[in-house]
Write a structure and sequence with these properties.
The protein has three helices and three strands; from the N terminus they run βββααα. It is mainly alpha-helical. Among the domains are: 1-71, Zinc/RING finger domain, C3HC4 (zinc finger) (Herpes Virus-1, 2-Layer Sandwich), CATH 3.30.40; 72-144. It is rod-shaped and about 165 Å long. Mean pLDDT is 76; it is low at 151-160, 186-202 and 212-217.
């Protein structure tokens, strides 16, 4: 077993690194030097915790493996790796738990949205049924009021005086159209005497053929 600086006697605090004394490992997991072992009442009681001792072993390379591992410095490295592994696994578990909680929250929100959409769909269907009923009633009313389907006129009833004036106006319009149709059409005859032909000799430019072209009409060279 390689000597380490932290191994010491739990009573006198003498270090094992000095290599001046022998050290013993007690069954109660205390360490005593050879001089302090005299206080154990011949190896029966631990002077530190006052517990009965089952056995004690000298610290050397021939120790039992189970007792030797308490003094192995490499166990600290293993402990550090184990600690980092535990921290890593703990963080991973926390991350998984947070993800599960987020999924649950998202599922609850989706359920609320689904319920809201269903309510809106029901309300829309109800309004659509009301609109269809209103449209059907309106079409039935128009069918009853339209003369094409044998119903009454769209306008209200006409009084007797208005009906008489309408008939008289219709008769007068018919008579006037008949008179215009029987009236003879007069043919327009043009007045020949009043038609004057324009003179061809007025304002006629001079020409060589009739001798009216003189020297004064020749432009200077």
């Amino acid at each position: 077993m390689s000597a380490t600086r932290w191994i010491h006697c739990n009573i006198c605090f003498h270090l094992l690194s000095r290599k001046e004394r022998k050290f013993y490992h007690l069954s109660c997991r205390h360490v005593l030097c050879k001089q302090c072992m005299a206080k154990t009442n011949r190896g029966t009681i631990c002077p530190v915790c006052e517990k009965p001792l089952e056995r004690f072993t000298e610290l050397n390379n021939q120790m039992d493996r189970k007792e030797k591992m308490f003094y192995d410095s490499s166990s600290l490295k293993v402990l550090s790796v184990a600690y980092q592994s535990v921290i890593f696994q703990h963080k991973q578990r926390e991350n998984m738990i947070r993800g599960i909680l987020r999924c649950r929250t998202a599922i609850l929100q989706m359920k609320e949205m689904e319920d809201s959409l269903r309510q809106k769909i029901v309300e829309t269907q109800r309004r659509y049924e009301k609109f269809r009923t209103y449209r059907r009633n309106l079409q039935e009313t128009l069918r009853q009021m339209s003369p094409r389907y044998g119903g009454g006129p769209l306008m209200g009833p006409v009084s007797g005086r208005n009906h008489t004036s309408a008939l008289s106006n219709r008769d007068s319009d018919t008579a006037s159209r008949r008179n215009e149709r029987n009236r003879p059409v007069s043919k327009m005859s043009p007045n020949v005497d009043s038609f004057e032909t324009p003179s061809l000799t007025t304002n006629r430019p001079p020409s060589i053929m009739d001798g009216s072209f003189t020297r004064q009409h020749v432009p200077p060279v």
